[in-house]
Amino acid sequence: MYFDTHAHYDDEAFDEDRYELIEEMHKNGVDNIINIATDMESCKTTMALAQKYDFIYAAVGVHPHEVKDMKEEDINKITEYCKYDKIVAVGEIGLDFHYDFSDRDTQRYWFAKQLEMAEKVDLPVIIHSREATRECYEIIKKSNVRKGVIHAFSSSTEVAKEYVKLGFYIGIGGVLTFKNAKKTVEVVENIPMDKILIETDSPYLSPVPVRGHRNNSQNLQYVVRKISEIKQISVENVCEITRKNALTIFFKK
Ligand code: NI
Predict the structure, then answer these.
(1) What span, in angstroms and rounded, lies between the C-alpha atoms of 136 and 87?
(2) In whole angstroms, what is the distance from residue 185 CA to residue 80 CA?
(3) What is the pLDDT of residues 87-97, one digit of tens each?
């Protein structure tokens, strides 16, 4: 039923019940998950999850928060990881000018480097863009990468359309169900169904009515229901189309 294209089950928030939870979710309609790395260490824990479960895939890369610790040799390591067949994307990579956990020039440098690497290994990218909309778009446009997803999309419809034109998908998650999500609702209204991916960002960004609690992929039911209301198509149809989209972007060479 559900294909969660963005989750972090190697996060310490799942230390107590990781495997029970994953197995229970899989029995309850979570067919596939892409687990996303955020730093060099989690590249390894992410790959371990993909190795343990046939229905889990992995993305490797370093999050803008963590690029302050990146070294040149890490690019070679990630390039090597990308050769494993269950690695379906480079991510999450991008810019975060909200928290500025890594200084901005450092973020810009490693974002461009990781895009270049994604192009070389011919994998789609998973983009984290927060309060850096214009610059993030410009850096991607300057690169030759033309396949990927803008994860937890939070910008305007206009920007979403520009990304779609560039070949990108729009990642929609729990935020869509928030009371103040007018902008995201408008994005879903205006972007064709075949450009939308569903995601949780577990353990973060839980949808209403479980907002504030640890997120998991079963909560995609709330996101899917909201999309079905907006698009006026059935829940089954939303699941089917978003699954097809995930297969197209991550599994079609
Ligand atoms: Ni994430």
Answers:
(1) 24
(2) 39
(3) 999 999 999 99
